[in-house]
Design goal:
Layout: H1 5-19, H2 29-33, H3 38-42, H4 52-70, H5 81-85, H6 94-116, H7 135-165
Helix pairs in contact: 1-6, 1-7, 4-6, 4-7
Pfam families: DinB_2 (PF12867)
Protein name: DinB family protein
InterPro entries: DinB-like, DinB/YfiT-like
């Protein structure tokens, strides 16, 4: 039997990126979403940006993509804007936001469960059905995808809070210890 050391590392990376409170890169997905209200989730900071709700839908969609591909579905794809970022209402209510967060959580669980079915690292070198890259590339891709969009969520959250969507003011400290308008934000990488 081939060892599963790499698979264990990938699962650890996926879990750290998603929910760790001690990730070296900054906030995990769960930490970034903490405190996002339905009102914030549905607000657009400019016409050409996605909302936090759309980003959460998008992250969920690509986790589902990974699960379907690991299940051998060569035809499953995300080909339309509705499948990619959703066709969400302009105003997100409590129920819609809770559903989006729950679907993201369930998609994470499904992804980890699908990986837990594997006994060794051999499948990581197999080509993903319907694609020209390996499972190894796909799984590291979803980690990078999460990090990229988590950064966007943190920036959107700060912008929405600063613009008055929340109760903070320019001299208030945010949840990561940063002061808006501070000249000492050099250590604030999010």
């Amino acid at each position: 039997m081939v060892p599963n050391d790499e698979l264990i590392r990938i699962i650890d990376l996926l879990n750290t990126t998603y929910e760790s409170e001690e990730a070296w890169h900054g906030p995990s997905v769960v930490e970034a979403l903490r405190g996002v209200t339905p009102d914030m989730a549905g607000k657009r900071i400019s016409p050409n940006t996605h909302t936090i709700a759309e980003l959460v839908f998008h992250m969920t969609s690509w986790r589902i993509f990974c699960v379907k591909k690991m299940q051998g579905d060569a035809t499953f794809d995300i080909t339309t804007p509705e499948k990619n970022f959703g066709a969400l209402p302009e105003k997100i209510d409590d129920f819609e936001w809770e559903a989006l967060e729950m679907e993201l959580s369930l998609s994470q669980e499904e992804l980890i469960n699908e990986l837990d079915k594997r006994d060794d690292d051999e499948f990581l070198e197999d080509i993903v059905p319907g694609r020209d890259y390996t499972y190894y590339d796909m799984l590291h891709g979803i980690v990078n995808h999460d990090l990229y969009h988590t950064g966007q969520i943190v920036i959107l959250k700060k912008a929405l809070t600063f613009k008055g969507a929340g109760t903070r003011f320019a001299d208030d400290e945010d949840e990561y210890g940063s002061h808006y308008g501070s000249s000492q934000e050099h250590d604030d990488y999010y």
